[in-house]
Amino acid sequence: MRKIVNITVGGKVFRTTQETLDNFPNTRLGKLTHTSDEYDAETDSFIFDRNPDMFNKILDLYRLGEFHISSNICGSTLRKEMEYWQIPTTHIGECCIQHYFKYDDDMKVMQKLRKNFDDLDYTDIECKSSRYKRWMRKVWLTVDQPLSSIYARIYNYIFMTIVVLSMVSFVLGSHPSFRKEILSYDKLLMIIEFLDIEFFDNLNLNNSKEVMFATTMASPVLSKIDLFCMIFFSVELVVHFISCPIKKKFFTFPLNVLDPVLLTAMWTTFAFENNLEFMIEREALTTLYQIMKALVVLRLFRFFRIVKIYSGLKIIMITLSSSVKVLLLLFIAFVVAGIFFASFIYYAEFQVPDNFPTIFTGIWWAIVTMTTVGYGDMYPQSTYGHLVGASCAFFGILILSMPIAIVSTNFFAFYQKNKEREQQDQFKKDNPRDDVVESENRI
Ligand SMILES: [Zn+2]
């Protein structure tokens, strides 16, 4: 005779047989006996204070042999229920496993976002205890978080204007109209002929760019703008650092590392440009100057401070950093395919003189073709070459499109989750009471 078992879950009575429950003896329901704590002799049933809606699915495991999840159940509840009823993940049906893991993926995305958008701030306790800290907090928020107040917004506009100004001055500095002559061409020729200075001896007179940089310097207006920007950014860095609540963490933000490097480079080049004669006589210094001058290009990165306002930009960065694997795959595919097609084109065009002189030039051609850029500086001319070229272009589209689809899916996931995060943060801001416990627990 079948033995009926009564189970009351959250007030709802479920009826099943001992035979059914015996299907999974290592789970909580499989282990039930009349000596269990949950057994109530008066009603002859086992009483549990759990979610009755979920329990239907739990019982189905014993009936069907597989655990199937209804899609409207939250991932967190599901995990807690499964843990309570001692159901291992391996019992989940294949059709439902994706639903189970989707929660993990979503949580990972959310954590990554929170980590990236979590700004440094003073704690409430610090602010209450000292007046200095309260002031520093104001300075910090103004300098670091443009969305924190109206002053911070205004300051940020000023900052951005100066960033743009410094960029414009950098770009204009390469145009002949914005350069002042410090040495005439004839004098330059004389120096090269009569003086033994390595810097001038190495100069290529056929290269107009080299000649321009040797005979002219940035116009006084541009130099003054540059000096102003440098002073501003130096003061900004000092204020930014001094007001930082956790100094150790200041340099964990890439943009904050950039600033000291950039300022060192800018001040060094500034010092060199004001002591040209001293520098030109020493070759090592000239090399150092050129390196520093190249570093100054990094000033363009300062513009990325704008990510503090437009979260979308930050999402792009997060997407790229979490798509490293796929991008690496793309890179490897490109390198392998590049070498492959380069070798083919090299031999296919063997009869055409001067075309594809080495396999190296073939790799350049293959990558330019696969990315659909096609500069046209090199192209196959023989019939075999055309065949290789066509398959290279076709293959390029294929390997390019697949990883890019994954990157854009990642981007969409981050974008969507970030929207939810922003809404949630806004809600917490508007209802500060709910937040009290959390803010006290922080740090
Ligand atoms: Zn299923």
Structure summarized in a few sentences:
The protein has about 450 residues and is mainly alpha-helical. It has helices at about 20, 50-65, 75-85, 95-115, 125-130, 130-145, 150-170, 185-195, 200, 210-215, 220-240, 245-250, 255-275, 275-280, 285-295, 310-320, 325-350, 360-370, 385-430, 435-440, and strands at about 5-10, 10-15, 40, 45-50, 180, 215-220.
Model description:
It is a single chain. The chain has 443 residues and is mainly alpha-helical. The protein folds into three domains: 4-116, Potassium Channel Kv1.1, Chain A; 125-173 and 219-308, Four Helix Bundle (Hemerythrin (Met), subunit A) (Up-down Bundle); 322-441, Orthogonal Bundle (Helix Hairpins), CATH 1.10.287. Helix content is 64%, strand content 5%. The chain is built from 20 helices and six strands. It has a four-stranded mixed beta sheet. It has a two-stranded antiparallel sheet with strand order 5-6. Bound molecules: zinc ion. Residues 68, 93, 95-96 line the site of zinc ion.
Task: Identify the notable features of this structure and list them briefly.
single chain; 443 residues; mainly alpha; Potassium Channel Kv1.1, Chain A; Four Helix Bundle (Hemerythrin (Met), subunit A); 4-stranded mixed beta sheet; 6 strands; binds zinc ion; membrane; BTB domain-containing protein; BTB/POZ_dom; ion transport
- Give a count of the beta strands, DSSP E runs of length 2 or more: 6
Bound ligand species: zinc ion
What is the approximate shape? flat
The number of helices is: 20
Low-confidence residue ranges: 439-443
